[in-house]
Amino acid sequence: MNQGVAVHGNEEARVLGSGPGGPGSPDGRGGPEIWLRGPTGEPERPHTPHEEGRLHMASARRFSWVATHGGAGTSTLATVFGGHDAGRAWPRPDRGEPCSVLLVARTHAAGLDAVTQALGVFRRGEAPPGLDLDAVVLVADAPGRLPRPLARRVEMIDSVIDVYRVPWIPAWRTGDLRGPLPRGIAPLARLTGRTAP
Questions:
Q1: CA-CA distances (angstroms) from residue 134 to 44, 73, 102, 156?
Q2: What CA–CA distance (Å, rounded) separates 131 from 102?
Q3: Helix or strand or coil: residue 6?
Q4: N or C: which end of the chain has fewer CB within 10 A?
């Protein structure tokens, strides 16, 4: 049986039949059209568990936590979420340090000033070559809501780059980093590949 397949759109195909008047018939007319929905190519071969693990490992991304000021919290974040604690230095990809940068600051006025200045370094192209700025991580400097002027500044930063917020976590203040993470930190957990709370 001779059949021709013509792909239509992303996932539709027209199959030309070979009945009376089909492509192989003496009169050469086209046969009835049958429209199929869905993929028409070879079925995907299922991945073996070993291949899926390899694919997951290949897609895992490593980050460098870069403090925009002293006391930003990069050591704590690297301990909790993994990745490289670059402190206040730029990561060195030539030494195997991850080139994906997460800028870290506290949510007080000085912290927001510092992260804005660091964003300017990337915007002007003055960051060391080979670094990729992925996001800003803002760590609460105190419990409770931010005062309105600081909240507006966070909104302004969020309008130019992805911002991940880390709330005040009392256990971290005493050095207990093993407890469950609060729900509000789930987006950062997903970004870094840590099991979300």
A1: 33, 17, 6, 17
A2: 10
A3: strand
A4: N
Find, among 127, 70, 155, the residue nearest to 104 by Cα. 70
105, 138 Cβ separation under 8 angstroms: yes
**Hey, what are 44's tokens?**
């995907």
pTM over 0.90: no
Residue 146 Cα to chain centre, angstroms: 26
Band the pLDDT of 48: cuts 50, 70, 90. very low
Q: Which among 64, 93, 106, 105 has a CA at the least distance from the CA of 81?
A: 64
Pairing of strands 63-67, 84-87: parallel
Residue whose C-alpha is closest to residue 35's, from 12, 5, 53, 6: 12
Question: For the range 143-147, what are the long-range contacts, defined as Cβ-Cβ under 8 Å and sequence gap of 24 or more?
Answer: 143/168, 143/170, 144/168, 146/107
